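Instructor's aside before we start: the two examples that follow are unrelated to each other. I chose them only because their records fit on one page, so don't look for a connection. First example below.
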Amino acid sequence: MALSHVNQHGEANMVDVSDKAVTTREAVAEGILSLSAEALEQVQNNTAAKGDVLAVARIAGIQGAKQCANLIPLCHPLALSKVDIEFTIDTAKSQIITRCRCKLNGQTGVEMEALTGVNVALLTLFDMCKAVDPAMTMSHIRVLQKQGGKTGHWHRNE
C-alpha cells in the first residue's frame, strides 16, 4: 500500500477527499501520564497551585483537537461535531489515562484530531504539575479505534 500523502513524483501533497462519501466518522485516542504520588494527590484533591488541573487539561485537549490542521501541515481543516476528553486516574500505578474521542460527518477521518487532543491534554497536565514533579513521563499515545469511511470500524487488538 502506498503512502497517501506522497504523489507520483515522491512529493508531499494534501490528499483530495472531494470524491469521498460523507459518513459519520469517529476516532478514539489515548495516552498516559505517569507522575509522582504527590502530584497525583494534588490533581485528585484539586489542590495544585495552578488550579483545577483536569478542567484546564480537558479544555486544552478540546482546543488541541480543533486546531489539528493548523499544526499538522497536510491535515484537512475539519468541522468537528464532538470532542470528548476523559481522564481515568489509576492510583495504583500513579497514572492519569487520557482519552480523546472526536466525531464528525465528513469525508475524511478524525484520528489525527483525536491524537492531537490527547497530546495537548497530556502536555497541559504536565505543565500544570511540573513544579511538583518535573520527572513525569507521557507514553502509550495511540489510536484505540476508528470508524466510518470505506474501511469501516477498526479497533486496536491488545
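Example two begins here.
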Amino acid sequence: MRDAKGPVIIGIAGFSDSGKSCLAEALVEAAAAQGLRVAYLKHDGHADEAPDDWEKPGSDTARAAAAGASVTMVASSRGFLLRSRQEGGFPAWFAAIRAVADVDVVIAEGGKRAAHAKVAVVRGEGEWTQLLAAGAVAIAAAVAPDGALTGIPVPVFRPHQAADLLAWWRDRWRQGALAAPVVPD
C-alpha cells in the first residue's frame, strides 16, 4: 500500500453535518478490515479562529502548554497522544504522522482548500456547488445519497460504499492520478 512517498492519503471535505465523520469512520473500518494500518487526522476549523479546548483544563499537559511548551505528549506503554502548538497545515500534519507512525493509509477529514486530493461529501447538487464556491480544490470523487448528484465530473459513491471508494482510491493513488501533498522531510 505504501510507496516511496509514504502512505495513501484520502482527504474528506464537506460542510458541517454532511457525513464527513461517518465516511471517515467507514473508510477506517474498511481499511482496517483489509489489515491496513490507518491514521485518522481531523482538522478542527473552529480551533483555527479561537483558543482550542483540546486538553482537559488543569491537566498536567494543559499546564505545561500554558507555561510555554509548544509540544506536549501523554504517553503510556499502550500508546501516546502528541499535541503540538506549532503553526502549520496539512503538509506539516502529514509529516508529523509519518514521523511518529508507520501507517498504510491516512484518512484526513477537513481542509477543503488544502492541495491534497479529497472526496467531497455532499447531500445534493446544491451542496456540491456551494462547496466549490467555498474554494474546495482537488476533488477527485464524491459521496452522496442515491440520485443526489448527476452530471458532475468525478465518480460518485454512496455512503454505504466505503470499501468500493477505498479500492478505487488505492488504485488511482498507485497510478499517480490523485493530487498528493508535498510533505516536508
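Residues 46 and 52 are 8 Å apart (CA to CA).
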